[in-house]
Design goal:
2 copies of one chain form a homodimer. By secondary structure, the first copy, chain A, is an alpha/beta fold. In chain A, 39% of the residues lie in helices and 12% in strands. Chain A has 7 helices and 6 strands, in the order H-H-H-E-E-E-H-E-H-E-H-E-H. The longest helix of chain A has 17 residues, at 42-58.
Chain lengths: 208, 208
């Protein structure tokens, strides 16, 4: 009797199934990782699983911007050298890290925790939109403040941006969105028609 | 203050470090996996880490062949339809699974649990070689039995094969090793000189 589809042990099968549930990890990689972990000292494996459990059980989110944080208020919201009248609205924790990595932005953030998607069953009430609305309403003289909608350019992103715009437009706050156009270093020849068309329509004054 | 090299939370940093200790997983993938796990329901994460802990804490090895097993004797060693007088010696659990997947072998195995490697500090006493010797000695009329050395073709593999051969040659058992030569479908033009040279020297009778 060969193993065929199966693994030589039920414990190994369970571990491979669990590991292959991760995105981008197939059953072959999962087997490789399971056998790697099996060869490690037991403290190492417990440290590995402990760090993951710890993250998922004890993670906290900033009371103000809903970013992952060790404290009640995250390090960005607690930083008085940043511009607290510029609020950059993003889908996820990862987007904050991407924008921070550019070093080009010195305002604060608001993490929605997802994007409006009727197909995935995510509506406005599943996201931190009400919190954003309250945050904008609490700003003194909102007409001198700004909300930057840094959402993706697909249908869900546009829908979410439009929904948020409708929620906060009455406050008089300036609402902007990310510039769209050709990427730096992009070749005209390979640009899609929509991007190219929009970057002609939204052309900018040449600054030599 | 941007995050720079760091992550927004110490818990996230710990989890990313732990996940990126896996082979072939960089820090970017580790971050992606950590944020994925963070979005899962807590039971799912506990099931994931539990399956890994369970594997590493409770795994058992077959008393006879040292393969991963749920029982004291693995399903292959317990299978009386297999030829127990053919013992295929392999480096790892994974090799057993690879050979089983071919469906071409109907004997039993012996898992060494590694390979002799002075550089990595692995000597013969770290492997299940003594167990193999005792197993061979316990075979009745060993001259009708066979040990197949299915080890890799590099220096460590050859060294280990030679060491095992010296340990068991006195018993009169037949010792064979895997056929080496061009792979099926391999192009002569791209074969390395050593493989090509050996496959000329070890040429086989043409069977049309």
């Amino acid at each position: 009797m060969a193993y065929k589809e199966n693994y030589p042990s039920a414990l190994l099968t369970e571990a491979v199934e669990a590991i292959s549930s991760l995105p981008g990890v197939g059953r072959r990689s999962a087997l490789r990782l399971a056998l790697h972990l099996l060869k490690q000292p037991s403290e190492h494996v417990h440290h590995f699983t402990g760090a993951i459990n710890d993250l998922c059980d004890n993670v906290r989110y900033c009371r103000i911007c809903r970013m992952i944080s060790d404290d009640e208020v995250c390090s960005l919201c607690a930083d008085h050298t940043r511009d607290h009248r510029q609020i950059c609205v993003v889908e996820s924790v990862r987007d904050v890290m991407s924008i921070e990595a550019t070093g080009q932005y010195h305002g604060v953030y608001h993490v929605l925790g997802g994007i409006i998607s009727p197909i995935a069953g995510v509506g406005p009430s599943d996201l931190n939109i009400q919190e954003l609305k309250e945050r904008v309403q609490a700003l003194p003289s909102p007409e001198t403040a700004e909300v930057i909608l840094a959402l993706s350019g697909d249908v869900e992103g546009e829908t979410t941006a439009f929904y948020i715009y409708r929620q906060i437009e009455g406050s008089g706050i300036r609402v902007s969105s990310l510039a769209r156009g050709l990427g730096f270093g992009d070749d005209l020849e390979y640009a899609d028609a929509l991007t190219l068309g929009r970057s002609i329509a939204n052309r900018q004054l040449f600054k030599p």
